[in-house]
Amino acid sequence: MESTRQAKISRLLQKELSEIFRQQTSKTHGVIVSVSAVRVSPDLSIARAYLSVFPSAKAPEIIENINRSSKTIRYELAQKVRFQLRKTPELSFYLDDSLDYIENIDNLLKKEDKEISEAEQHNEEK
Q1: What are the C-alpha distances in Å from 48 to residues 19, 28, 39, 71, 104?
Q2: pTM of the predicted model as reported, rounded to 2 decimal places
Q3: What is the 3-state secondary structure (H, E, C) of the chain?
Q4: Which residues have C-beta within 8 Å of that of residue 18, sequence separation ≥ 6?
Q5: Which candidate, 43, 42, 53, places its Cα nearest to that of 94?
Q6: CATH: 3.40.190.10, 3.40.630.10, 3.30.300.20, 2.170.190.11. Which one for 4-95?
Q7: What is the mean pLDDT of each run of 10 residues along the chain (126 residues)?
């Protein structure tokens, strides 16, 4: 169960990380990184950020680069939240592939609908 303080810090970190990634990805044309969720540990020392990357083909490479530069990102984040938080949590970044999962389900459903309509047309011809 997430406490009220954890939820508030999660929202703050999500907002500020989103802004940091928006500024950084404006330089790289064609790549969009968005922060879909942030989970903070109960002692507020560790934050796990879940990122959505578009296009998803570049996602593993982008996440790897972000994890390599997590110290720099943490420093930038600390500058932005220095008046709200005493200590900035350690950051770790994970790929949020829920959008790919949803897209896959949509494609499967469309395929199923197409197969059903083709079967109905075949039955009507008989």
Answers
A1: 17, 24, 5, 14, 25
A2: 0.74
A3: CCCHHHHHHHHHHHHHHHHHHHHHHCCCCCCEEEEEEEEECCCCCEEEEEEEEECHHHHHHHHHHHHHCHHHHHHHHHHHCCCCCCCCCEEEEEECCHHHHHHHHHHHHHHHHHHHHHHHHHHHHC
A4: 34, 35
A5: 53
A6: 3.30.300.20
A7: 87 93 81 90 93 84 90 93 91 83 80 77 70
Give me 90's structure tokens.
Answer: 């350690």
Distance CA 41, CA 103 (A): 30
Residue 88: closest CA among 45, 125, 40: 45
